[in-house]
Backbone:
């Protein structure tokens, strides 16, 4: 089916999220929609899916102008969406999820599960998905859950499939498999819109690329364009995609972790006898697919996990069992994984957020009273130093863009005297320009002789930042390898296979 | 950061605006943009909603007054014959009721001279005194993300503690009052602190605990009031205390002709204290951080548990101040188990109307004091049932709890409209009111 968007305009108050966007997706084409966060990709797709009504412009399918009052209309017209966050019910089976919202019932109102099962089986066989219709969603790996989403869309006769940032949650291998599935779907005549900001994937699978910046189409590119060309089109200026760093000047062994175990609230052993050390002046990246114990490991280091065994020593002092306050006071800087939830108070001003973890004593507090003058000077200095784009230090942190929010967190943590920096997913959800900035700052910290731990699920980031890489799988460390290890080896390690030539540590 | 790496050939269409602001509005004069932003802040801001909620509630109240008024009902019988009668009757009833409300709460023009005319305002402030104190306590808990419905219990315990010191202990004037006030504060703080401790240690929900502790306090105080030798007046069989000793009673603020007592000053001081605590002290900083985002507070090394305990201690103490004002200021002739006069619950409304801001609560408390003072004269002068005042108070809560409704009625823009499809962080119900 041929999809045309003509002059789609969508404004929110004074803000033009989509400004006369034209987009044509031919039948059987994979069309990549490339743009930074906030460029208007998601708004455009929500218009297409009937979640928003466009202020101007029209949606045309096979030459027929469509009017979508809601997602139901869009689905009936043959548009399917695979959301970034899966819309599945974990305690339902695959078949139940697929028929959800379109339940077939017999005369007495009994669900016709058999038909749904058959449909799942049929689609799954057609594309070689190997999915058991009776498996519970919560038991399935993320990659398979995504396939259930695809089946769900296909079972409603979708002939235009929209993938919204589909690879964010996948391992490199799963990503490759998804690419194969997309090609297969294309062969079968389905049109695909592939939304992403990852350049490599676009070049690998797309037939055509449309780049959006600030709500406007800024150009079309062919898959043969280089990463640098695509990135500069996306950001509007030249960007450095590779992280420039010198050889590490290694110092003493600063952080020593031995035999660390974490038991979570559900009594699961989520970190399993992990041992590693970080030297002053190096970046140790903890790589792995989301949900393999990285979060809990870092929480254990930060004193945020209650049940931890083993030893954690920073420069000879034990950190295990200390309160978060004491660990921060020991000179540990922390950039949390979820900055809006754990890193910032959205309703606080930029200035207040800059002193968030220093509210107990000098220099920000004297005799129980906030030193507002000092804070204002400090905040203004940091806003300049870290190039935080804000209307002023009294703007609310929640109103900043993701990149600027992360700069606030970094500015706060890096302005203390540090003996260790722990940064988890420091560039998640950031645009290319901010990623560049964050990476530079992390490398600068390392070059100042401070040991750095970075947790990342993005291979590009892992390879770019790491002096050494520890790969985690199911709570254990598969192996610790040099930063120069090829991606293919890292990808295999993320699935639990030890690297050739190293023995498994876990 | 980009200046050194700016490319020789910038892609077409690049704008000079910062790259990190994909959401920033474009194509508009910066000045007018700032204006409309400021406008949105003022109109969409919480203070405006509070004022409009009061206004709407008064409008609905006017409709109810007109509907229940007998002349209006009679005139409506021949509405089409002489519509003028109907409108005149409506005007009479509504303007009569609201002017009685005004004269009963602010200034009475029918009395000779300023000293007599202003008396209603002092009545208003007398009624407002405990409302403000309890409102501050509830509002403070709101700011820490907690819903303190235990005002009744905290007031009763504080009243019993302060009252016992006031009638049973002999101390020199002045010192006696201070000791009694301190005893009340400690009583209220402890009763609130239990809640904080239970929440911090066991995760018990403060709403359940405070409601239950209301009953515990009520029956405990009732028992003390019925037991000779404890709170009961000797030689009496009524569940009531003896009168307070004059050495422990708040002195009159403006002389014996007015009921306003020095307790009002303690409430003004409490307002200043809460303002300082929340916006100038580091403890208040931690309170607000926990209230807005307990996760981020915990990660930032703030001891969330101890914040809960200290916040409830202070909250209970402030609510206790309301109980102290009742027994040492308003009803000094001895009190029974009804001494809380529902102030603990009215305080929730006051705190909501005041948007949990100290000075907002102060003025909301004065407004509710005016409703109480004026309600009586409205009933006496115009025969308007005092329940109308209760309805107006309840409607205020309703409108405040539904800002979108108020905005829709007045066609105000939604504040902080974000065009992102990403869901923005949902604010907690209680803090957002």
Residues:
């Amino acid at each position: 089916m041929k999809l045309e968007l003509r002059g789609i305009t969508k404004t929110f108050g004074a803000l033009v999220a989509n400004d006369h966007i034209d987009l044509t997706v031919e039948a059987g084409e994979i069309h990549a929609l490339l743009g930074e966060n906030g460029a208007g990709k998601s708004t455009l797709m929500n218009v297409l899916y009937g979640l928003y009504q466009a202020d101007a412009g029209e949606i045309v399918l096979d030459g027929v102008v469509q009017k979508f009052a809601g997602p139901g209309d869009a689905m009936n017209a043959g548009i399917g969406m695979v959301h970034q966050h899966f819309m599945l019910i974990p305690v339902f089976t695959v078949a139940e999820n697929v028929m959800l919202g379109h339940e077939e019932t017999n005369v007495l109102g009994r669900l016709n599960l058999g038909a749904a099962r058959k449909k799942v089986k049929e689609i799954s066989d057609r594309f070689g998905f190997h999915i058991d219709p009776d498996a519970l969603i919560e038991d399935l790996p993320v990659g398979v859950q995504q396939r259930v989403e695809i089946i769900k869309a296909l079972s409603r006769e979708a002939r235009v499939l929209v993938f919204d940032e589909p690879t964010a949650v996948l391992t490199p291998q799963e990503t490759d498999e998804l690419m194969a599935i997309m090609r297969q779907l294309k062969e079968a005549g389905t049109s695909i819109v592939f939304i992403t900001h990852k350049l490599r994937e676009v070049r690998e699978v797309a037939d055509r690329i449309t780049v959006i910046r600030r709500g406007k189409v800024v150009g079309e590119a062919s898959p043969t364009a280089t990463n640098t060309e695509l990135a500069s089109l996306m950001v509007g200026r030249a960007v450095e995609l590779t992280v420039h760093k010198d050889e590490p000047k290694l110092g003493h062994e600063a952080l020593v972790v031995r035999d660390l175990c974490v038991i979570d609230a559900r009594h699961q052993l989520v970190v399993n006898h992990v041992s590693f050390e970080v030297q002053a002046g190096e970046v140790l990246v903890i790589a792995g697919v989301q949900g393999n114990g990285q979060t809990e490991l870092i929480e254990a280091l930060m004193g945020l996990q209650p049940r931890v065994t083993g030893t954690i020593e920073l420069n000879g002092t034990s950190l295990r069992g200390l309160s978060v306050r004491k660990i921060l006071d020991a000179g540990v800087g922390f950039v949390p994984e979820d900055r809006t939830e754990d890193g910032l108070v959205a309703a606080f001003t930029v200035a207040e957020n800059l002193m968030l973890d220093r509210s107990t004593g000098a220099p920000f507090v004297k005799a129980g009273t906030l030193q507002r003058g000092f804070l204002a000077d400090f905040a203004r200095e940091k806003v300049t130093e870290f190039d935080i784009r804000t209307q002023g230090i009294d703007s609310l942190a929640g109103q900043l863009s993701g990149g600027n929010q992360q700069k606030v967190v970094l500015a706060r943590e890096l302005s203390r005297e540090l003996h260790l920096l722990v940064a988890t997913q420091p560039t998640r959800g950031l645009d290319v320009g901010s990623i560049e900035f964050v990476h530079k700052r992390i490398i600068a910290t390392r070059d100042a002789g401070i040991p750095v731990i970075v947790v990342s699920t993005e291979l590009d980031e892992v390879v770019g930042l790491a002096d050494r890489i520890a790969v985690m799988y199911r709570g254990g460390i598969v192996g610790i390898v040099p930063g120069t290890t090829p991606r293919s080896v890292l990808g295999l390690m993320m699935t639990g296979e030890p690297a050739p030539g190293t023995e498994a540590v876990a | 950061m980009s200046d050194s790496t700016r490319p020789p050939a910038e892609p077409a269409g690049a704008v000079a605006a910062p790259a990190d602001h994909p959401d920033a509005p474009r194509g508009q004069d910066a000045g007018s943009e700032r204006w409309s932003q400021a406008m949105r802040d003022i109109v969409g801001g919480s203070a405006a909603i509070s004022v409009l909620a009061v206004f709407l509630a008064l409008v609905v109240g006017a409709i109810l007054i007109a509907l229940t008024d007998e002349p209006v009902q009679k005139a409506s019988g021949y509405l089409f014959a002489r519509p003028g009668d109907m409108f005149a009757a409506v005007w009479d009833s509504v303007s009569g009721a609201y002017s009685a409300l005004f004269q009963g709460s602010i200034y009475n023009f029918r009395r000779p001279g300023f000293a007599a005319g202003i008396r209603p305002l002092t009545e208003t402030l007398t009624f407002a005194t405990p409302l403000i104190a309890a409102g501050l306590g509830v509002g403070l808990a709101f700011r820490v993300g907690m819903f303190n419905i235990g005002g009744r219990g905290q007031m009763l315990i504080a009243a019993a503690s302060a009252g016992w010191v006031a009638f049973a202990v002999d101390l020199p004037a002045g010192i006696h009052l201070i000791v009694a006030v301190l005893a009340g504060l400690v009583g209220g703080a402890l009763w609130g602190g239990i809640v904080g401790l239970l929440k911090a240690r066991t995760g018990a929900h403060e709403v359940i605990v405070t409601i239950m502790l209301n009953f515990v306090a009520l029956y405990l105080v009732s028992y003390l009031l019925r037991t000779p030798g404890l709170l009961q007046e000797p030689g009496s069989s009524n569940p009531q205390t003896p009168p307070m000793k004059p050495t422990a009673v708040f002195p009159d603020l403006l002389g014996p002709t007015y009921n306003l007592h020095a307790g009002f000053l303690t409430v003004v001081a409490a307002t200043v204290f809460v303002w300082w605590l929340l916006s100038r002290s580091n403890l208040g900083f931690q309170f607000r951080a926990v209230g807005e985002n307990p996760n981020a507070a915990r990660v930032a090394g703030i001891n969330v548990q101890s914040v809960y305990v200290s916040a409830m201690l202070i909250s209970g103490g402030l609510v206790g101040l309301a109980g102290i004002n009742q027994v040492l200021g308003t009803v000094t002739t001895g009190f029974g188990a009804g001494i809380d006069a529902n102030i603990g619950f009215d305080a929730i409304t006051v705190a909501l109307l005041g948007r949990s801001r100290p000075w907002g609560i102060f003025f909301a408390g004065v407004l509710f004091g005016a409703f109480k003072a004026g309600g009586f004269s409205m009933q006496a002068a115009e025969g308007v049932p005092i329940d109308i005042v209760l309805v107006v108070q309840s409607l205020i809560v309703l409108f405040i709890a539904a800002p979108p409704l108020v905005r829709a009625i007045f066609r105000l823009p939604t504040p902080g409209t974000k065009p992102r499809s990403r869901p923005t962080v949902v604010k907690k119900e209680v803090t957002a009111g």
